[in-house]
Amino acid sequence: AETKSQYIKGKWLGKGTYANVYEAHLKSNPSQLFAIKKMIVGAEAKDGLSMDSIREVKYLQELSHPNIIKLHAVFSSKNQNLNLVLEHLPRGSLEQLISEGDIQYGSADIKAWMGMLARGLHHCHSNFILHRDIKPGNVLVAADGELKLADFGLARSFADPWTRMTYLVITRWYRPPELLFQARHYGSTADVWSVGVIFAELVIRKAWMPGGSDLEQLHLIANVVGLPTEDVWPGVSKLDGYIKLTKDPAAPQTPVQHRQQMQREFALVGPEGVDLLMQMMALDPRKRATAKKVLMHEWWNMEPKPRRKEDLPRKV
Ligand code: ADP
């Protein structure tokens, strides 16, 4: 068991919804930096917030992979505050790489970053863990350029498919249609959808489907990949939150037109890249690519090869 006294707290790194994050190092070794995530366990903690912290610990401890943030230790401080000692990831998040205009990147960089995301995701899913809140802000960059899935606060095991799960997870823009329709039994391909949205965002460098409400989100999705009907997604109309969407005359009307629209918008990654993206954005979660299937796609073998991580563009 680790105790607080082993770590010297350094400068404040940032604030999240439920935590303050500080730089830290071991007394015995000042050169290796860590990030200490001090969970805010206040009066509001009763409504499941401390549960979130406990979940984060439980799942992170089980995972060990280059593309998943490493949890080095856990200790409690005064008022039973939970402290997570995490790998120090000093190069910001994917959100910053995407939005900072002075950072230039191309298809080789996107392929390298997508490979890291897909490998991290596959590792989570092979261990029966869903992340459930994948978005660019939760993908952090290590000193060596490796991307790491972080913020496992909402993660949970999907080993028991019969427990009903909450559909109020995943930030709306990255949320798959089954969750927007309030499905209670969903699987790992919900995370694949979120990574697909990130893939698109990496290419266009702005939010792809920035819905202002759940209904608007569903319309944006329908305009991009098509209407969710019983034909393409058997059973969809039985979901609790199902809403029959109507055709937008300005949107593509056939699967061929949808693919053509995607090939124009995502020309940077070529037809194979677009094919992968479309497999990740299948409306029916059972037809959507799994993380394993994503890793086996032909796009990875096309030119250009993924950029070596030491050559990837970085925040200045
Ligand atoms: P929350 O889960 O409560 O939203 P975050 O995990 O988003 O908290 O952390 C808040 C901020 O702290 C981040 O935006 C980032 O600036 C910083 N941060 C978080 N984790 C690390 C880390 N491992 N290394 C360096 N900085 C971090």
From TrEMBL:
Keywords: ATP-binding, Kinase, Nucleotide-binding, Serine/threonine-protein kinase, Transferase. It comes from the Eukaryota. Coiled coil: none annotated. One of its GO terms (cellular component) is cytoplasm. It catalyses: L-seryl-[protein] + ATP = O-phospho-L-seryl-[protein] + ADP + H(+); L-threonyl-[protein] + ATP = O-phospho-L-threonyl-[protein] + ADP + H(+). ATP binds at residue 38. GO terms for biological process: positive regulation of transcription by RNA polymerase II. Residues 7-300 form the Protein kinase domain. GO terms for molecular function: ATP binding; cyclin-dependent protein serine/threonine kinase activity; RNA polymerase II CTD heptapeptide repeat kinase activity. Belongs to the protein kinase superfamily. CMGC Ser/Thr protein kinase family. CDC2/CDKX subfamily. This is Serine/threonine-protein kinase crk1. It comes from Patellaria atrata CBS 101060.
